User: Which sequence fits this backbone?
């Protein structure tokens, strides 16, 4: 018997709120990620709404200039770090172990720690609104305006610490999923038999592990500038603002693929299922995902075409950027080829997926347009770019996330979402998205710069700004209808059986909702789309086995207090770092937070995976 | 629909070779993009409608791929991209290398950007004796190459005259260079295009392309010192400016005691068309409004936040003082 250094009784079968706080079940953590991120997505939406209302008419005074700058900073930061990334993580959590035939992720407690740390980072960032002002230098935080000389308040400090804490969460999750996917696949599931979503999750996790350290370094340097008086980015001290830009975009461009590859993975699951055909060109789709992930490291300076790097750098980065269009195009062609001669069922997940393709093609093509550095000199930092990123991240990532929610909802809840409601909200979202963002192309070409809180009527930007703002109301209607559909279906939706879509991958071979142990018997995989092949082979004995109650004990890890407790240390310590120079209280909080983290990790390390006194659990 | 060349910052209303090359490139890539979009969405929609599931649909044939097709749709986009890449690289180099440098006899303007105004310093080989520095209004000779050197006093800014040339960022501790040229005489709008703080939206200026003769005249005028006003009210304003209201502590009026460069140069402020970096027409009313409450017009500006006449209630400008200052500033032609 192992002696436990801190005699805290391990939670065995906690219920209610404790059940959620101590859970290490990947499915519950997936639900926590999903609901938290969706709420944060709504806050980012409110920030966007205020931006659009301010710009609806020229010389508007609804939002003060300083608040406007905070709004666009928080909108970008929220949507990228607190909404799209964690919504992706929600899918990783829920789906990956089921798709690869595992009972959980490789490190279940680390997984819980990822979620709670993400929540701590989100709280730190969002609390800035009520603690003296949100960050105001844009989600890209370009030096030197983030320095103390130009930015005295704590907004930037909240931004730095918040992103660092979120980085810890992302890194922990990324390592977890790499190890899970590499080590925990069911017997017979070779790498080239993995579902595409699993592949894209693997690539995304590798990108995360490599990209986050870069921004971590940049943020530490900035923090040192602001807290300890170093001059990495302080221009009056000889610092170089371009150092920040390079570091930020060496992280920032792979980050774009961190946001879009999971979306491509989701689409690559839905299109084959609702076409009743295997993905066309599996090897090529996987390979182009790998190539996109790799090339994503060679294009960062296309965010810096107007910085003055010179014609040689601009030409090289223009060409590498154009190269990325090739594997991206290949993916799109393969999706269309999957549809070709299929048996296409236009249920809401499929509608969102087709919407994704159309919108992502527009965003991809406008992206290719800015890859031409010379022409981009007119588009850089205008609304044309705002249009582009929203076609990629809203039309792309978010549409795929909506598709994925409709698709896996029955697996999560055991109930189907209302189909009519789903179709109407798709239509509203598609129309609203285009009304809001397409006119921004015109505004940009008409010379409207980004990040400006006002404009004069003589510029001729009134009409399209008003149209863009009106489109937002379609988006709001779509999201409200979607929310209603989710909450209602969760309680009263039509019951779903284990395989409502005639699915192809392993998650559809087990009951809905999924039992805690996932699989009664770990399946033995004999082919790609193994479940589909088994269904069609006529021999369903293996499938039926997994729909029965288990006969013996199933070994599962137990809940734990320590992950959430370690994250609480992150939260307290994070606030301490923000106020480090202000008072002893700041220093104290930082020290206390650090100690909580150390104690928790120590206790966690000595906590046995299973309490030896307890047996028989599933 | 989106192409509205009559709007002042439209990138479709090109006035010079740089913007023109950028627009030509834009049209070329736009054509390729529209071509690809139409084909891809046409095939997509055709596939979706043609192959919709019927009630008693059997499983379709399980096609796993086709190597020839994969090769085809890898190579075809690559070919299109070659036709985009070649003009791109040519234009990048054309726009980077000035066809006529200062050493070769063309005008050079050094731009200094600051939160939130602009200074322009002229070095003209055709007027080698004239030293000209001005703020918030740029004049260039038509049909001539103008070399631009970009410097920043504080944070990032970006130099952008949409009708004349795409933008180039202004980076502290770096000197970026570009060249511009206008083939049309007239007025052009310019605006800072890199986020630079609270009043980023209000950091503009105007560019006037004049004939060479007009430009030379303007250079001469700008190089002269300010004259002493004759009118008593204006004289009173000058006294306030150089005295108890301490305007001289931040502004420059050549030929007077005011020599600071913290704020914009005001030597010939009355000769300019705009006030406060391209955001107000230069009228008596607007000048008065600006002096009454600069914070309400351009939030965050240094004058409103730091000048004692705005920070110290006891030193506040009263109406007669504002009238005197307006009268003085209006003589600075």
Assistant:
């Amino acid at each position: 018997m192992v002696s436990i250094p801190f005699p805290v009784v391990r939670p065995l079968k906690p219920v209610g709120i404790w059940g959620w706080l101590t859970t290490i079940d990947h499915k519950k953590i997936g639900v926590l990620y999903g609901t938290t991120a969706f709420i944060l997505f709504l806050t980012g939406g409110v920030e966007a709404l205020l931006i659009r209302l301010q710009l609806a008419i020229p010389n508007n005074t609804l939002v003060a200039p300083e608040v406007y700058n905070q709004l666009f900073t928080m909108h970008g930061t929220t949507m990228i770090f607190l909404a799209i990334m964690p919504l992706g993580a929600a899918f990783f959590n829920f789906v990956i172990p089921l798709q690869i035939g595992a009972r959980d992720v490789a490190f279940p407690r680390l997984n819980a720690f990822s979620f709670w740390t993400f929540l701590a980072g989100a709280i730190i960032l969002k609390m800035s609104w009520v603690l003296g002002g949100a960050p105001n230098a844009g989600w890209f935080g370009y030096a030197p305006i983030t320095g103390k000389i130009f930015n005295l308040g704590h907004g930037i400090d909240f931004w730095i610490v918040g992103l660092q804490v979120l980085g810890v969460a992302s890194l922990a999750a990324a390592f977890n999923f790499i190890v899970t996917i590499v080590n925990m696949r069911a017997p017979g599931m070779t790498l080239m038999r993995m579902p595409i979503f699993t592949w894209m999750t693997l690539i995304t996790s590798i990108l995360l592990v490599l990209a986050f350290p870069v921004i971590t370094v940049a943020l530490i340097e900035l923090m040192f500038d602001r807290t300890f008086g170093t001059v990495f980015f302080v221009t009056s001290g000889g610092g170089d603002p371009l150092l920040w830009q390079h570091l930020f975009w060496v992280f920032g461009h792979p980050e774009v693929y961190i946001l879009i590859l999971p979306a491509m993975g989701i689409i690559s699951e839905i299109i084959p299922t609702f076409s009743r055909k295997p993905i066309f060109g599996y090897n090529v789709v996987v390979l182009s995902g790998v190539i996109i992930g790799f090339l994503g490291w060679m294009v960062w300076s296309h965010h810096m075409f107007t910085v003055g790097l010179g014609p040689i750098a601009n030409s090289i980065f223009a060409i590498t950027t154009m190269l990325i269009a090739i594997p991206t195009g290949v993916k799109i062609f393969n999706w269309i080829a999957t549809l070709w001669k299929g048996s296409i069922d236009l249920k809401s997940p499929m509608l969102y997926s087709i919407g994704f393709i159309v919108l992502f093609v527009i965003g991809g093509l406008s992206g290719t347009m800015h890859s031409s550095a010379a022409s981009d000199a007119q588009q850089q930092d205008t609304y044309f770019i705002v249009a582009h990123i929203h076609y990629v991240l809203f039309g792309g990532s978010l549409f795929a996330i909506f598709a994925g929610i409709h698709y896996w909802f029955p697996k999560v809840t055991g109930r189907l979402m209302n189909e009519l409601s789903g179709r109407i909200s798709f239509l509203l979202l598609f129309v609203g998205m285009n009304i809001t963002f397409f006119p921004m192309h015109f505004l940009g070409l008409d010379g409207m710069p980004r990040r400006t809180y006002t404009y004069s009527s003589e510029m001729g930007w009134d009409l399209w700004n008003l149209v863009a703002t009106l489109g937002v109301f379609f988006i709001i209607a779509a999201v409200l209808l979607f929310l209603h559909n989710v909450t209602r279906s969760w309680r009263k939706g039509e019951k779903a059986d284990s395989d409502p879509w005639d699915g192809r991958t392993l998650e559809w071979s087990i009951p809905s909702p999924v039992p805690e142990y996932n699989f009664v018997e770990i399946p033995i995989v004999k082919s790609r789309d193994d479940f589909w092949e088994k269904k069609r082979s006529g021999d369903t004995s293996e499938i039926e086995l997994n729909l029965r109650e288990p006969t013996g004990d199933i070994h599962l890890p137990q809940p734990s207090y320590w992950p959430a407790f370690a994250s609480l240390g992150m939260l307290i310590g994070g606030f301490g770092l923000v106020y480090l120079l202000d008072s002893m209280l700041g220093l104290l909080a930082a020290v206390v937070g650090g100690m909580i983290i150390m104690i928790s990790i120590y206790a966690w390390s000595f906590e046995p995976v299973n309490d030896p006194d307890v047996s028989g659990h599933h | 629909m989106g192409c509205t060349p009559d709007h002042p910052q439209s990138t479709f209303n090109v006035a010079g070779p740089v913007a023109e090359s950028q627009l030509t490139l834009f049209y070329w890539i736009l054509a390729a993009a529209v071509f690809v979009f139409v084909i891809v969405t046409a095939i997509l929609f055709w596939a979706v409608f043609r192959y919709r599931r019927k009630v008693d649909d059997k499983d379709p044939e399980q096609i796993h791929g086709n190597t020839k097709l994969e090769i085809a749709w890898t190579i075809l986009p690559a070919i299109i991209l070659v036709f985009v890449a070649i003009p791109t690289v040519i234009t990048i180099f054309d726009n980077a290398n000035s066809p006529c440098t200062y050493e070769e006899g063309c005008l050079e303007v050094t731009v200094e950007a600051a939160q939130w105004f602009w200074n322009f310093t002229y070095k003209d080989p055709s007027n080698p004796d004239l030293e000209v520095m001005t703020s918030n209004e740029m004049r260039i000779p038509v049909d001539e190459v103008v070399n631009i050197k970009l410097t920043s006093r504080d944070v990032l800014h970006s130099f952008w005259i949409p009708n004349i040339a795409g933008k180039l960022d202004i980076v502290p501790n770096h000197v970026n260079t570009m060249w511009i040229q206008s083939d049309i005489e007239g007025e052009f709008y310019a605006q800072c295009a890199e986020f630079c703080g609270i009043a980023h939206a209000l950091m503009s200026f105007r560019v006037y392309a004049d004939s060479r003769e007009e430009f030379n005249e303007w250079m001469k005028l700008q190089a002269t010192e300010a004259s002493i006003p004759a009118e008593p009210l204006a004289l009173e304003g000058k006294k306030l400016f150089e005295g108890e209201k301490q305007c001289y502590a931040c502004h420059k009026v050549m030929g007077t005691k005011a020599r600071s460069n913290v704020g914009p140069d005001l030597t010939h402020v009355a000769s300019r068309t705009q006030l406060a970096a391209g955001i107000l027409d230069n009228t008596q009313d607007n000048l008065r409004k600006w002096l009454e409450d600069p914070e309400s017009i351009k939030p965050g500006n240094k004058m409103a936040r730091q000048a004692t006449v705005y920070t110290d209630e006891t030193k506040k400008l009263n109406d007669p003082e504002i009238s005197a200052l307006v009268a003085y500033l209006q003589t600075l032609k």
Remarks:
- Residues 613-618 of chain A have pLDDT under 50 and may be disordered.
- Chain A has two domains: 1-24+558-612, 25-557.
- Chain A touches chain B through 94 residues (CB under 8 Å).
